[in-house]
Design goal:
14 helices; globular; 5 strands; Tyrosyl-Transfer RNA Synthetase; three-stranded parallel sheet; 2 domains; 54% helix; mainly alpha; Rossmann fold
Length: 331
């Protein structure tokens, strides 16, 4: 059976991009795989060190989103990263197997440093987070890791560490990981940006109330050349139609709208109103389920506590194997 490790940084509630990019996969895979889902609070602190209270609060928000979309704690182990001390010890050992130059040239790290505007003031913890991720993955001996395409360099670096460790200590302790890419690479932001991002403020959150969803939809970017209703419009690169393709099960209706829009005579407002109906119908049951779980936050935290305790049974065993291979199991 495949072992999966995946997770999210608790920097805010989850959005539709998360649903399409990873959450849907997790719900589907939990019936056929051993799955661990980690709330990566320690990783969130690498660039939110001064916002630890916010990170703490968002652990519950992320957990509520998990449960609301159908991640079942009876099938999936949900755990909190900072409460698994073995991960930090593994990271310290792996750091000795990776050069600083290699870390600096990790494409994902370079792109995120630029996006976050760190300049020369990059936190050291942020620079080494690919090694921390390798510790997360290998601690569970995960051989399948759902990631977006932009995270592929992280899997590559993890497998470099796996290979280097096993060769250095002449024992096959760590397991190579395979990336599992989502069917849809990424959901564009409401502003037409390449991806939906909390940082960019172009998200529709799973927990957004109906009026907020409507406002966001009606302000969505469309075809800038579609000025008048009678003008032919472009469907490609138009996020309104991308969302309809993704969330509307009535494919015939969507195709009719596309044909009409491309021919001319269909205004953006009409299409957006229809998209709003589609998203409201999609998100209503998720929001309702989330509200039910939110009535018992102590119960949700108990799920995380039990999941973390269960996860530690695995991470403790892996650390023991690693220490034994290194010859530092002294007693």
């Amino acid at each position: 059976m495949k072992i999966i490790l995946t997770g999210d940084r608790p920097t805010g509630p989850l959005h539709l991009g998360h649903y399409i990019g990873s959450l849907l996969n997790r719900v589907q895979l939990q019936d056929t795989c051993t799955q661990f889902v980690m709330i990566a609070d320690a990783q969130a602190l690498t660039d939110h060190a001064k916002e630890s209270t916010k990170v703490r609060e968002n652990i519950l928000e992320v957990a509520l989103d998990y449960l609301a979309v159908g991640i079942d704690p009876e099938k999936t182990t949900i755990c909190i990263q900072s409460l698994l001390p073995e991960l930090f010890e593994l990271t310290s050992y792996y750091l000795n197997l990776v050069t600083w130059n290699r870390l600096k040239h990790n494409p994902t790290v370079k792109a995120e440093i630029k996006q976050k505007g760190f300049g020369e003031a990059v936190p050291a913890g942020f620079m080494v987070y690919p090694v921390s991720q390798a510790a997360d993955i290998t601690a569970f001996k995960a051989n399948l890791v759902p990631v977006g395409e932009d995270q592929l360099p992280m899997i590559e670096q993890t497998n470099e560490i796996v290979r280097h460790f096993n060769q250095t200590y002449k024992k096959e302790v760590l397991v190579r990981a395979e990336a599992l890419l989502p069917k849809m690479a990424r959901l564009p932001g409401t502003d037409g940006g390449m991806k939906m991002s909390k940082t960019l403020g172009n998200c529709i959150y799973l927990s957004d109330p109906p009026d907020v969803i409507q406002k966001k939809v009606m302000k969505m970017f469309t075809d800038p050349g579609h000025i008048r209703v009678e003008d032919p419009g472009k469907v490609e690169g138009n996020p309104v139609f991308t969302y309809l393709d993704t969330f509307d099960t009535n494919t015939e209706k969507v195709q009719e709208l596309k044909d009409h829009y491309q021919k001319g005579g269909l205004g953006d407002v009409i299409v957006k109103r229809y998209l709003n109906e589609v998203l409201q119908a999609f998100l209503k049951p998720i929001r309702k389920k989330r509200e039910e779980y939110a009535k018992d936050t102590a119960g949700v935290m108990e799920i995380l506590k039990k999941g973390t305790e269960k996860a530690r049974l695995t991470t403790v065993k892996t650390l023991s194997d690693v220490r034994s291979a290194m010859g530092i199991d002294y007693f």
